Amino acid sequence: MSKDKKQEANQGKELSEWQKRNLEYLKKKAEEEAALAEEKEKERKLRMGENSKKEEKTEEFSTESDEEKEEITSEKADGQEEMSAEESDKKTEEPTSEKSEEAVEERAEDSKAKAKKKEKPVKPKIARVHILRAVTVMVPSVLVFVFSAYLLTPFATIKNIEVKGNVQTKEEEIKEASGIADTDYTFALLLNKEKHADRIKSNHWIESAKIDYQFPTNFTIEVKEFEIVAFYVTGENHYPILSSGVLDSTPMSLVNLPETYLSVMFNDEQQIKDLVSGLSEISSEIKQSIEKIELAPSNVTADLLKITMKDTDEILVPLSELSKKLPYYGKIKPQLSEPSVVDMEAGIYSYSLADKLLEEAEKKAKEEAKAAEKQKEKESDEKPQEQ
């Protein structure tokens, strides 16, 4: 009986030690689970969008913990049964309990390792401001790269240029005046359209010019030329006089001459500019009635003009007073019953063209008579010397 009691006491002691170790293990396990649960709770608050996934992981982990607990409990029961069955041999019981503890610890470590594997590290979300910053840097960089690559290709210099509005000037002359070269980049031409348009006006025929762009590589040069207001006539050559007051140095072919035109019989550059300026202020009705303008300087007026009208009327007017006095011809014309001369040199008055022709004929006859008398006197003076 005493032996049985000692064995039961020893068994009670061993069981108490095992339970104590088991309780310590369970306590540590509970602390680990509590710490892990707290950590998961913090992660759950940070990841508002991943609640469902975390709950599933937590459930899986709790399930595994329950299984581990059941395994530990079953191992504990097995250990107790083994210990009660092997009361006679104390040395045998101690190794068994140690092995069971090692097995429990190994399983606990395996469960921890599994839990760590299942719980993937949470990737931190990238703030929107950082994404925007990256986009603002990447997009311009890509555009610069693409544009640089484009400039290295032959397509960067392809240009289709069309000229409109030119009549007296050739298309090649306008392109040359624009300064546009075949090697110029299309993009550069697009940016410098106004600059090239201004260069075109260096041609004395061009009054205005503009360049229009049509995608992808088409350009249209639209020009407006100065009008031809008269022709400087010398012999068979007719040189255009433009509305800008410029006298073109190239004669126009007779084939291209208009049916009616104003002839100017002098070519002084300043006088032509003054003439064009004066005519610009005259009504188109009077201008269309003029046939010819020539210089007829008198002793009093050096810039006196003789204007021959298509109805044979003649007007004498100073070039410096052309725009002021010539409009009066429109009021005087209805009062003229025959071809007349309207003298505007000093004041304004008119007389018959026949009277003028008669006066000129008489004047010419007198001059010829005087010349004849001088010739006779000269001859009479020479005869006595010969004798």
CATH topology heading of the largest domain: Rossmann fold
CATH class of the largest domain: Alpha Beta
What proportion strand? 15-25%
What overall form do the CA principal axes indicate?
A: rod-shaped
Q: What is the succession of H and E elements?
A: HHHHEHHHEEEEEHHEEEHHEEH
The order of strands across the largest sheet is 5-4-6-7-8-9-10-11
How many discrete structural domains?
A: 3
The helical percent reads 55-70%
Number of helices: 12
What low-confidence regions span 5 or more consecutive residues with pLDDT below 50?
A: 84-96
> Which architecture of the largest domain does the CATH hierarchy give at level 2?
3-Layer(aba) Sandwich
Q: How far is it from the N-terminal to the C-terminal residue, by CA?
A: 210 Å
Largest sheet, described in full?
8 strands, mixed
Q: How large, in whole angstroms, is the Cα Rg?
A: 60 Å
Number of strands: 11
